Structure formats: structure tokens, C-alpha cells
Amino acid sequence: MEKVEENNVEVSTMGSIQEPEKSYKVANSDPNSEVKFKLTLEPTMMLLLLGVNISMMVQTNLFEERMCLHTALGQNKSVNCHNLTAAEQEIIQPAVADLQMIKNLIETLVPSFMALFLGPWSDVNGRLPLMLSSISGVVLSNCMYCVFSTIPALPPITFLLCSLPLAVSGGTGALFIASFCYIVDITDFRTRAFRLGVLQFFISFGSIIGSLLSPLLYNKSSTYAFALSSMSTIAGLLYTSFFLKETVIIKEGVNTKLFNVTLVKDMWLTVVKQRFGFLRSIIIISAVVLTLNLIILFGEDALMYMYLQKQFSWTLENFTLFNTYATLLSACIPAAGLYVLSTRLQIPDMYLATAATGLRIIEKVGLAFAVHTWQFYAVKIFGCVVFTSEPLVRSQLSKIFPSEDLGKIYAFISAVEGFGMLLGSPIYTTAYNMTIHNFANFIFFLSSFLGTFVLVLYILTLFLLSRSTKSENLLIDN
């Protein structure tokens, strides 16, 4: 490493910059373990996403049924609440969208606040406690859905109680903070983007299996679906408990208090402290682009099934086939692409993220104008790179900031993502409810507009990175 003392920064001969690290606290007994590939938390994430997708695919239909049964529409004997027509769905869907919006707010608000504490806490108390806590919340939530689905007399609003375990345990946000930090702990710079891509492949594979099983189970009973979802997430919890090893060396006398204001203060000081070049600005921009990406992703996902039900009379089986196809593309192509483009050819992470965003904009415009089923399948080819942006951005951050800062930086980003999503869900829900009768595809134009703004921010990040090092090769060999 070549020292650049006047800027107190290290410039790698490979071209990436890395601020000097302090004595690091990652447990790694094998000095060569960083270059060996073996599965660690990937099976955990696969089992969890399998269960989560089984549950999520059923929830919309279950909400529609219960909303129908507990409104005036359900009192009409000619209406079959278990098989609504397009006209009946148009009546029910605004109320269902509002219910899902409240559900998303519950599952986002508290975890966003807790993320401020959880990331820094895991830096000194370990990754596994954070994983086990968030997984336990998912398990309890699925078990509650399983029980509540057996009681038809319960009004739809009762299902909001199922979101409380997710909220108080840190939610999926805490799980992804821990998992990203875990991957950073066990990988080196060259393999990190690919390893994050492999993690995304296992997540997508679990999602595919869950999507395929969901309609089969729902045709028997929604309770069957939630039961299998519960068992899958319990299996993930047991795997994590017995097979994963802690990657952080816990020091004696460390403060184990969760709501430690000092940790939050340290996180904030880590984010805002003066850094070489424009590295501080890059943290802020990264948080914004990842937040906008999540707003687009979850805003559309919450409404896509209802949109396709209304516009094209799709059933759960139709949507499952489409969702499986899209997820399969998003699993295989990015993982293979990251291996070739990032690991082998060493193309810079941010170049790849920028290109992926451009393809994503094309996808959104295509979805907005699609009027036939085959068109939805065709344009999804452009959107298959949607899940590469987050691992690429996090991989880039891990290459330019010291390891002891990453947990704090990821926690800050997770908190910003959560608070941003508090705005995103109401925005998409309001837009859909306002345009459902004559311009329901407006949500895709909204996504393309937000995607264009993200593209501009990626280009700005490339410029700032080029001005944040004296190495001419920063964006080529990182």
C-alpha cells in the first residue's frame, strides 16, 4: 500500500481507496479463508425468503377476501368473495391498498428508528444476535397469520397485529444489515461484489420456490400456506442458531445495552466526519439512491398483483408464473453477470450499477405501455438487473471506507431507507387509488421518473469518486 500522508488516506496499488483501518475485530482463524468459497448464511436467507414469499403472495388475496366479507359488498349473495370479478376488485382494492399501506408503515417506522441503534450495536456485540432477533420476528409474524387465517370472523384490520413482531424485532431491515456486514466480515475486496451477488441468488431462489408453492397451497387453504411459511422460517432460525459462527470478537466489558445513545452519536460522527475528497458526500448519495430504489421496488410490488388483476384479470396462478419468471431472471443473470463483469473483468461497481439503472428505466417505460401478457414478460428482461444495484453500492462502500466504520454506515443507510419508505408507500398507494379508474399504469411512469433521478445521482457519484483519489485507476481496478 502506498501512503498518502497529507490526506491521511491509503491508495491501493489496485486503484481502490481505503481509509486506514484500526485494529479490526473480525474473527477469522484461517488466514486463507477469505479466498475460499463456502456457504455460510446463504441457506438461512433462502429459507427465510421462501417463507416470506409464500406468505406475501397469499396476503393480498386474503386481505381482499376479508375486506369483501366485512363490507357491504359481501352482504350481496351474488358476490363470491373468494373469486371476485374485475369490477368487484375495483371496489375493494382501494381499501386493500390502504390496509397494505398501514401494514408497511408499521413494519417500517419502528425498524427505521431501531436501525439507528442496531448497526452500531452489532459492530461491538456481534452479527448473530441481530440475525436471531430479526428472524424470530419473522417467525412469530408468520405463526400469527397462520392462526388468524383460521378465524373468518376476524376483521381485516386484525391482521395488522401480525406486523408488530416484525416491527419490534427490527424487521427485515435489521436482517439485511446483519447479513451485509457478515459478508463484509468474511470476504475480501475482489470477491465481495460476487459474493453479494451469490447471496442475492439464494434469496431469489428461495423467492422462486415460495412463489411456486404459494398458489398450490392457497388453493387448499391460506392456512396451509402460512403453516409452511412458518416452518420454513423456523428452519432458517434453527440453521442460524446451530451452524453460523460469529464473525465479531466480543471484547470483555463491552456495553451490551441496545438503546445506547453513545453508539448512535458515534454512528452520526462516522457519517459526517471530514473525509478525503468527496467521500462524505458519497455516503449521503448512496443512502439516497438505495432509498429511492427501495421505494420503487416495494411501491410497485405492493400494487403489481392488484394492477394485473384489474387490467388483465390475472389469477394468482398467472401472477405466480410471471413472478417466478421475473425472479428467476433476477437470480441467474445478475449472479453470472457480477461474476464475469465484476470478479473476472474487474469493471467498477458503480459503472455496473449505473448501467443497471439505465436498463431499469427502460423496463418501467415498457411496463407502462404494455397491453399484452407477452409484453410484460419481454420487458422484464431489462428489469432482471434490479437487484444488482444494492450489492454493488454496498460493495463500493466497503472498498472506500475502513471496516470498523461499515456497520455504522450501513446502519445509517438502513435508517434512511426506512424513513424514505414511510413516504414511498403512501405516494404509490395514493397515486394508484387516484388513477385506478382511467390511468392505473401511472405507477410505472412514476417509477421511471424516480429511476431517472437515481441515474443522475449515480453519474454524480462516478464524478465524485474520480475526484476523491489521486489514483487514475480508481474506477477501473477496484
Q: SSE layout and pairings?
A:
Layout: E1 2-4, E2 9-11, E3 17-18, H1 42-69, H2 72-75, H3 86-125, H4 128-148, H5 164-168, H6 171-186, H7 189-220, H8 222-243, H9 261-272, H10 279-312, H11 316-344, H12 349-369, H13 373-383, H14 389-400, H15 403-435, H16 442-466
Antiparallel strand pairs: 1-2, 2-3
Notes on the structure:
Helices cover 72% and strands 2% of the residues. The N terminus and C terminus are likely disordered. It is built from 16 helices and three strands. The protein folds into two domains: 201 residues, Up-down Bundle (Growth Hormone, Chain: A); 210 residues, Growth Hormone, Chain: A. A hairpin with a 5-residue loop joins strand 2 and strand 3. The chain has a three-stranded antiparallel β-sheet with strand order 1-2-3. It is globular. It has 478 residues and is mostly helical.
